[in-house]
Design brief:
This protein is α+β, with helices and mostly antiparallel strands. It folds into two domains: about 130 residues, Alpha Horseshoe (Serine Threonine Protein Phosphatase 5, Tetratricopeptide repeat); about 200 residues, B-lactam Antibiotic, Isopenicillin N Synthase, Chain (Jelly Rolls, Sandwich). The chain has 13 helices and ten strands. The strands form two sheets. Strands 1-8-5-10-3-2 form a six-stranded antiparallel β-sheet. Strands 4-9-6-7 form a four-stranded antiparallel β-sheet, with no helix packed on it. Strand 6 and strand 7 form a beta hairpin. Helix 1 packs parallel to helix 3, helix 4 packs antiparallel against helix 5 and helix 5 packs across helix 7. The termini are far apart.
Amino acid sequence: MPLNDSQIAALNQQGVAALKSGKAIEARRHFEDIIAFTKNSPGAYLGLAYACNQMSDAKAMLEALDQVLKLQPTNVYALLLKADYLQISGKKRQALSFYQGALTAAGRLQLVPEDMKAGLERAQQAVQNSAKEYKDFLYNSLRNKGIEVEKTSRQFLMSFNLAVGETQLFLQQPTRYYFPELPQIQFYERTDFDWVEDLEAATGDIREELMHVLREDAQFPPYLADVEGIAHLNNRELIDNPAWGAFFFWKNGPFMEQNAERCPKTLAALKKIDMPYIANHSPSALFSLLKGGTHIPPHNGMLNTRLICHLPLIVPENCGTLRVGSESRPWVEGEVLIFDDSIEHEAVNNSSKTRVVLLFDIWRPELSLEDRAFVTALLESSNEYTRD
């Protein structure tokens, strides 16, 4: 006899009540009655699976779960129940697939139901245990092959940490212009650039000029200014905030002559460096000041055709680090840091005192002279369009 919608709803309600009362046989009968009438009810199949689980009828439970997942592949309850069964049955790797599926599906929900949270915690724990087990296996296997992971190259160690899920993969994601097929390098080694030695040797002179400026201008203008007509969709805490201050020598292209005249030795050192000169765009070179307790939140730079350089001049004790992608490095006075700012990065000054670096941009070394000319022409044309 056909069932109408109200009868199906009543049977479902009776089945759920029976489940909650521990009356698995009665619940199973109600859900089977619904399924006999309609084969397209994932809720009825799920209720049947729970009833069969209470009855220790694993075969029927799995058949019901397969039907749920055929109709609703992202049903979190079904994924968790199947994962739990596989885990108890000793099939840990199969269980892991369903636990991971449940976590992924739950991540798409706007609101996680209370009765789902315990299962998701089990899933998270299972994933963490599996990751540790996998890491330990790989580590020991490599050691048996004569390879000490900690003594490998920096790149291989990063790949190992990615393989075992200990670090996240970060790639270039510039906000304005992307040049394809450039290497994904977070930090460049300063020893690979021939200008670094001369710049580091000038640290004392540059710091002396910085201190003279600070004695006259204790507070620099904010690095980020609120510009009318520009939407600011990210964190606004540092906009018009001198906690992140800037004393520019070049500001997005234009030369700041008055500032440069006050720091002739700094200017001379910068002029020896291969900075990109693009009208109304670059270079930028400045004393970048970060007051104690200030955090520059994660963000991506505009281009991947440049690198950003820091020459640390004033670094308080316990200052903090610069994170680029999955790697963090501290500032060390007189030692240049070179990084790709098109990769997500952030900086923090954990101390109570001010940190200051000489910040400037350079061309990426992988770009040919011809490509640099092309990029320069394109960005200048883009600026002409924006200005018009």
